[in-house]
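Researcher: We are triaging several targets before committing to wet-lab work. For this one, the compound of interest is zinc ion. I'm pasting the protein sequence and the ligand SMILES. What I need is the predicted three-dimensional arrangement of the protein with the ligand bound, expressed as structure tokens, so it can go straight into our comparison scripts without reformatting.
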Amino acid sequence: MVAEMKCVGYCRASSTLKSGWTYENPCRRFWGCGNYRKWVRGCKFFCWYDLPVNARSKVVIVGLRRMVADMEKERKKEKSLGILVLVVVFFVGFILRKIFS
Ligand SMILES: [Zn+2]
């Protein structure tokens, strides 16, 4: 599979294969010009690579992405809590050492 090609718009810049993550087009790949959103002489070249995502796939993909995002949030909370526990244990150990030395 070709992952990069020249833009077929006017600019001929490098164009890469990207994935859309909107609700309407989750995981649907497209070709987009590297100059697409530039202010000066922005190129409008855009072309879908994949066929449209069917309704059932949209629901499943969006649901799975939401689950992964929720799991990542939980993992970050757990990591923060772990660091907090380590700091408290270190601090209490430091205080106890001062008291009993
Ligand atoms: Zn272009």
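Researcher: Any quick observations?
Model: The mean pLDDT is 88.
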